[in-house]
Amino acid sequence: MDYLSLINKYYPADDALRRLLLDHSQSVMRKALQIVSSHPEFNADAAFVEEAAMLHDIGVFRCDAPGIYCHGTEPYIRHGVIGAEILRAEGFPRHARVCERHTGAGISQEEVVSQHLPLQLRSYLPETIEEQIICYADKFFSKSRPEREKTYEQALHSLRKFGDAGVERFSEWHEKFKKV
Length: 180
Hints:
Blueprint: H1 3-10, H2 16-38, H3 46-55, E1 64-65, E2 70-71, H4 79-89, H5 93-101, H6 109-114, H7 129-138, H8 152-160, H9 164-177
Helix pairs in contact: 1-3, 2-3, 2-7, 3-5, 3-7, 4-5, 8-9
């Protein structure tokens, strides 16, 4: 099953949420693929990056975020783990890891505790180069303003409210992924 078939399965109606999901995911995918093509030294799997970027937010429909057309019952912070559950059930464990590790600039086990997050106690930090690239690219596109790409400074600012650790990770990725 390809990523569009999965999106069609979980977002069958041509509605505002589906359009938002597709617009946002395509923006993230394009930026992630630009990073992959600009940095052949990372040997990132471009086909996987394309698929996983398109699926990274597949769990949002189960969340309570009416401002972005999501009318589920789960807290928004859980959209990544919900997406991971969906993708594991569909037989896509590698894609599931991207889902659960893309929120913020990843979430450490310590951040789960210190911020009292409604997540299972474990690390949600991106580990593979593909996970890092997609998580980084995602920070440049908000679902509340999908038509606009944030600057590095704007993306950094939006991460600051969640603590210094995510800001540090994002800054390190910026140094790693920016074009030379």
